[in-house]
Amino acid sequence: MSFTSKSLDEFVALLASKEPVPGGGGASALVGAVGTALGNMVGSLTLGKKKYTDVQEDIIVLKEKADALQKDLLSLVEKDAEVFEPLAKAYGLPKDTEEQRAEKARVMESALKAACEVPMEIMGKCCAAIELQREFSKKGAAIALSDAGVGVAFCKAALLGASLNVFINTKAMQDRPYAQSMNARADGMLCRYTALADEIYNDVAVRLR
After folding, report:
1. Which pLDDT score is estimated for 126?
2. In a 10 Å sphere around its CB, with 0-12 CB exposed, 13-18 middle and 19+ buried, how is residue 130 labelled?
3. pLDDT of residue 142
4. Which residue, of 28, 39, 155, 180, has the fewest CB within 10 Å?
5. DSSP assignment, residue 5?
6. What is the pLDDT of residues 155-207, one digit of tens each?
7. Alpha carbon distance 16, 134 (integer Å)
8. CA 70 – CA 30 distance, rounded (Å)
9. Which residues make Cβ contacts (< 8 Å) with residue 167, sequence separation at least 6?
10. Are 73 and 36 in contact (CB under 8 A)?
């Protein structure tokens, strides 16, 4: 099932339903893609403008990066749903005998690690998108400055959302050293990039007032 090819109405209705996917991870990836696209729009409105001749080459490079991030984040909407399915099935495995419990634990651990990697990847893409928003807000057309602010707010929200999907999976892992290493990676991104996103957003807000 391709979620990104659905209409907005269909996607939101599925999100609100009892269906297991799409969920918070896929929604975070989509929000990240939308946030990235808002910055990309700032770039589009800057290209070809005489007032911004000196940054044209920079904007072209920024837009190429944003195009790639948008594509990656949309693909992660689908990937998040794909990795959740085995995990959902693993929760339903029988555990009546010792052998069944051992097999369930093995399958669960593998599925949890796979399900954790995708939101971690979403987080990484959101961090890159936040860095792009900083450049778009500095070099882009002033008429679209608010869009860079909205974009960075969306990317921060997506980063935070994806982190919760990391933590819910690491919490259930038996391999605690692995879980702790994933938590540390996520915490590192949160610490650096939520602060950066706030800095960019506040700068935009001050310039708009």
Report:
1. 98
2. buried
3. 96
4. 180
5. T
6. 999 999 999 999 999 999 999 999 999 999 999 999 999 999 999 999 999 99
7. 33
8. 9
9. 183, 186
10. yes
